[in-house]
Amino acid sequence: MQVVEFSSQTHDNVVDLPPNLHDLNGRPVRIILLAKEGAAKPAHAAGFKAVSLKTKGFRFDRDEANVRCKASRGCLESAVTVVI
Fold it and tell me: Rounded CA gap, 15 and 43, in Å?
C-alpha cells in the first residue's frame, strides 16, 4: 500500500488529484479527508451581477500564480491523504 499526501480544494463534491497523481485515476483508493475547521463557504455578495475587467496587456503565468498561492497558503482549503 502506497501513502500519498496532497492538498486540494473540493468542488461539487469532488476532490481533484494533482497532475503527478493522474496515474491513480480509475484505481480504487482509500481516502482520509482532513478539512480545515472554520473554513466555511464564502457568502455571496448581495446584488452582485457582473464584473468588467480590462485585460489588455495582462499576461497570466499559472506557475507563478501557484507559487504565490502556495506561499500565502490561501489556496489550501483542505488536506487529503490518499492510501493506495
Answer: 21
Q: Could you report the per-residue pLDDT of 45-73, keeping only the tens digit for each?
A: 566 677 788 888 888 788 887 777 776 66
Which domain range does residue 71 map to? 3-37+60-83
The β-bridge partners of 11 are 14
In a domain, 54, yes or no: no
Q: How far apart are CA 71 and CA 26, in angstroms?
A: 31
Is 50 within the bounds of a domain? no
Report if residue 32 sits inside a domain: yes
pLDDT value, residue 39 = 57
Indicate the pTM of the whole model.
0.41
Q: CA-CA distance, 53 to 30, in Å (whole number)?
A: 43
